[in-house]
Each structure stands twice: as C-alpha cells, then as structure tokens.
Design a protein that fits this description.
single chain, mainly beta, Immunoglobulin-like, six-stranded mixed β-sheet, 0% helix
Length: 97
C-alpha cells in the first residue's frame, strides 16, 4: 500500500499556491480530495493506495490553465510525491521524493 502527497508552486512568482482543489481518481471515481494549504501542500492526499493507474486532478484558478489532470501509475513503492509547477505560460510535473 502506498501514500500520495502533492504540492503546487507558482514558479513565476516563486510562491506556493494555496487553495487549489485536488482530487485523486481511479476507474472514473474519486478516491480522495484535498485542498492545498498556505504552503501549497497536501501532506497526505491519500493513504493505503493499491497498485494501479490513477488520475490526479488539479483545479487551478489561473488565467489560462484551469484544470490539469495527470495519469500516474502507483506501484510497489510506499510513498509517492507528485508536485505541480505552474506559471501563466505553462505547467509541468515530476515525481518528487
């Protein structure tokens, strides 16, 4: 079983993004929801995740990017951290530690 955490950072301003609604979906259903805190983080969006494909959805309030969905594969590792980096001109993500 694995855990998943995330954070959102505005790399144009160098500041965390608070108040972003984040959901984790599997097979079309929501398995977890959270909201980024003042530091742009959700320390544990989900725990006890079984292996499989999930969709991590960020509901942004930006002027262009409004919703970002990432399809990820959860495996045997016990911990997953998936940050989202945003600017008015782009978004990117990576698997953090």
């Amino acid at each position: 079983m694995a855990t998943l955490s995330t954070h959102v950072l505005d790399t144009a301003s160098g500041r965390p993004v608070s108040g972003v609604a984040v959901s984790l979906e599997k097979d079309g259903g929501v398995v977890a929801r959270g909201m980024t805190d003042g530091d742009g983080r959700i320390g544990q969006l989900a725990g006890s995740l079984e292996s499989g494909r999930y969709r991590l959805v960020f509901e942004l309030k930006g002027p262009f990017f409004r919703r970002v969905a990432l399809d990820v594969e959860i495996g045997a590792d016990p911990k997953y951290h998936i940050p989202l980096l945003v600017t008015p001109f782009g978004v990117t993500s990576y698997r953090g530690s």
